[in-house]
Amino acid sequence: MTSIADQLRNRARDTAHQAKSILRDGVPSSLRNKVGPSAQGSDPDARLIQVLNGPDKNHRYDLQTAVVIDRVLSGDDVAIDVGCHEGAILDHMLAAAPGGRHLAFEPLPHLHSALIHKYRDTEIHRLALVAEPAGDLEFHHVVSNPGYSGLKERRYDRPDETVELISVPTAKLDDLADDRAPKLIKIDVEGAELGVLQGGSETIGKHRPIVVFEHGLGGSDVYGTDPSDIAAFFAEHDMAVSLLGTWLEDGPPLSNEQFSAQFHQGRNYYFLAHPR
């Protein structure tokens, strides 16, 4: 009998393969309402680009991240999931690199409890990663929309979110990575990404993994973080920032000015850092 974990991993692998199959078979009917008729042409490269750069940002980022993970990880490669939530991205990591000693972090108690039961062979910590550990910190649990939870109260899309203050322990990524050599790190922490990066500076500098990270208005600016801060961090490690779709197409990285425009104009809020 197939275990629930195996079912989840198979479903995650299928998602990554769905995106790549667009190259071969065109857009499936389930996605046609998202990409429009122009993506139905005969050029497979154009079809892939249309879907991966389509107007539905969340769907686009999901597909792009699945393809990035499938491209970067294999075998016993290691990935780190910061802001694991319900494990959707961890599913992809496990599917692509089933032998890896993956590491995940989720500060919300109920989500962490569910994760450690679902992924019994994966190390998952109930921690908020920061630049420097500060004991337990106040954490905003957005009960009505847990994905918006964070150390600070970000700006919400809806005016009536229910927020509960809880206490969460903090740590540096460098102190928990141990001897792992991650090939990929995903960071989705509702604006606190610079602190995560700074607390993982040694790990990132030594191994220079692919870093998929959220960085957007309404979250990052609440922490006083600007694209120039993110760009400067990666420049110190001889890494550049790209749009996920551009990196998948082997296109050029963003200049500092382009990165700033993407952020301040709200054009994109998911990015990928990579060795130059």
Give an account of the 3D structure.
- By secondary structure, this protein is an alpha/beta fold.
- The protein is 39% helix and 18% strand.
- It contains eleven helices and ten strands.
- It has helices at 4-25, 32-35, 44-52, 57-72, 88-96, 109-118, 193-199, 201-207, 227-236, 244-248, 256-264, and strands spanning 78-82, 103-105, 123-125, 128-129, 136-142, 163-171, 182-187, 210-214, 239-242, 270-275.
- The strands form two sheets. The protein has a seven-stranded mixed sheet, with helices on both faces.
- The chain is globular, with a radius of gyration of 18 Å.
List keywords for this structure.
Rossmann fold; three-stranded mixed sheet; alpha/beta; seven-stranded mixed sheet; 18% strand; 276 residues; globular; 39% helix
CATH class group: Alpha Beta
> What oligomeric state do the depicted chains represent?
single chain
Shape assignment:
globular
**What is the helix content?**
25-40%
State mean pLDDT (0 to 100 scale): 86
**Uncertain regions: pLDDT < 50 for 5+ in a row?**
1-9, 32-47
Task: Please tell me the total number of domains.
Answer: 1
The CATH homologous superfamily is called Vaccinia Virus protein VP39
**CATH third-level topology:** Rossmann fold
Tell me how many strands there are. Answer: 10
Structural class: alpha/beta
* Biggest β-sheet: strands ordered side by side in the sheet: 3-2-1-7-8-10-9
Number of helical segments with 4 or more residues: 11
Strand fraction equals: 15-25%
User: Describe the biggest sheet?
Assistant: 7 strands, mixed
Gyration radius, rounded: 18 Å
SSE pattern? HHHHEHEHEEEEEHHEHEHHE
Known CATH architecture: 3-Layer(aba) Sandwich
Q: Span between N and C termini?
A: 46 Å
